[in-house]
Amino acid sequence: MGDAMKIGILGCTGRVGKTLVSRLVNGGRHKFIGGTASSANAKLGFDIGEALGIGTLGIALTDDPTIVFENADLVIDFTNAQALEHHLPLAETKKVPCVVGITGLEDGHRRTLERVSKTIPLVYAPNMSFGINLLLAYVEKAARLFGEDYDIEILEMHHRHKADAPSGTALAAGKAAARGRGRSFGDIACVTHKGRRRQGDIGFAVMRGGEIMGDLQVMFVSEGESFSLSHRTFNREVYADGALKAAEWLYQQKAGLYDMQDVLGLKTATS
Ligand SMILES: NC(=O)c1ccc[n+]([C@@H]2O[C@H](COP(=O)([O-])OP(=O)(O)OC[C@H]3O[C@@H](n4cnc5c(N)ncnc54)[C@H](OP(=O)(O)O)[C@@H]3O)[C@@H](O)[C@H]2O)c1
User: Fold this and answer.
1) What is the rounded CA–CA span in Å between residue 205 and residue 8?
2) I need a labelling partner for 144 at 20 to 30 A (CA). Which of 54, 80, 127, 188 fits?
3) Mutation test residue for ligand 1: of 78, 136, 233, the one with most atoms within 8 Å of CB
């Protein structure tokens, strides 16, 4: 276990951000030094702990990420893709390692992550849970072993508030499967089936409803059998715990762009 850190949370009033702050202030080894919300947040200037209903912390809620980057050893970002565009240049200037858990990133965001990671350590992972990352490693292996006689279909279900579809986790599963097959994901991803299925495609099905935290099923289906790998998330603590594990690991690393497979040592574990 590494040194104790001063950690800032961008998006600390969000579903995952809130869980992270609670984890840090309730007996965590690391110190919570501040966090942001959007400029529209009605609680800006209020005590963060009081705004989150977890007691007084003596830190005011801000929409200014600069303050957080100036005071933190490491920053965890669970805001959104648009906000990330402002956060990455700050991380670069202030030389603060970052754990980024935002989904719905576009190619431009990825290029910025890669550029910034030349000077600071970054973890980017659309899903921080241990179970999901283990599943991704097995999806890659299964896709390699089954080959193209088995159709790959990915089914995911999330809560009604989710902004992106398919989810970042479902896309990560698709990319793992494409890697396993030695194919480019862009060439074989089929986000919505229209008409007859093309052999070799990776299909996606998306469902949204209520407060479902996250269900994922990756199916390999041939004419004779069906094989599935599945995962269900029960609470957001798995994301918060994964992000904190990534933070502890990242603080010991040199500049570079890492994922949860690196953090959890899964790249070689299932080969
Ligand atoms: N990697 C993983 O394991 C994982 C797991 C779950 C979710 N996610 C992803 O993480 C992200 C956050 O998820 P969530 O469910 O926590 O979302 P959420 O509940 O909507 O929270 C978003 C947070 O970002 C803040 N925010 C919004 N716009 C901002 C801006 N322009 N500048 C600064 N802060 C801003 C919000 O502030 P206000 O409260 O003021 O709106 C809030 O604190 C999403 O992309 C989600 O898909 C990743």
Assistant:
1) 36
2) 127
3) 78
Check pocket membership of 239 for ligand 1, CB cut-off 6 A: yes
pLDDT for position 192: 87
Q: Which atom of ligand 1 is nearest to the CA of 80?
A: 45
What pTM did the predictor assign?
A: 0.91
- pLDDT tens-place string over residues 49-73: 999 999 999 999 999 999 999 999 9
Concatenate the DSSP letters of all residues of 12-67 into one string. TTSHHHHHHHHHHHTT-SSEEEEEE--TT-TTTTSBHHHHHTS---S-B-BS-HHH
Low-confidence ranges of the chain (pLDDT < 50): none
Catalytic residue set: 158, 162
Alpha carbon of 198 to ligand 1 centroid (Å): 36
